[in-house]
Amino acid sequence: MAxxxxxxxxxxxxxxxxxxxxxxxxxxxxxxIPITSAISAAAAEGKxxxxxxxxxxxxxxxxxxxxxxxxxxxxxxxxxARVVLSPEEISFVxxxxxxxxxxxxxxxEIEIKLSGASNAFRRTVQVxxxx
Length: 131
What we know:
The protein has helices at residues 2-7, 41-45, 63-74; strands at 11-16, 56-62, 90-92, 101-104, 106-112, 121-129. By secondary structure, it is of the alpha+beta class. The chain has a single domain, classed as Ribosomal protein L9, C-terminal domain (Ribosomal Protein L9, domain 2), CATH 3.10.430.
């Protein structure tokens, strides 16, 4: 565990292509307002705009992807290369749609606990939009 804590950086970055959706078509509110005037549905109803939701991504970032990344980092060190990691030893701290993967952009905390170890440690995974 000491080797892992020393070698694994605090933040792990992953890049995925975001799924873009077309904005909703504005409704025509009144015959007196020209059709070329764009009024959002929320504005037409007099409601406040809500904060945008989570941005979905093509593919996902799974515990298997994280392990592959960590193995590449550990392989650069003689002691780190001897550490055996598996996806079952990594879990997302916050509840996700699927317990072993995330499917949207954001920052997620993971917990790493080797089999037989008494303690676990945490790192941050950030999923960025790929250009």
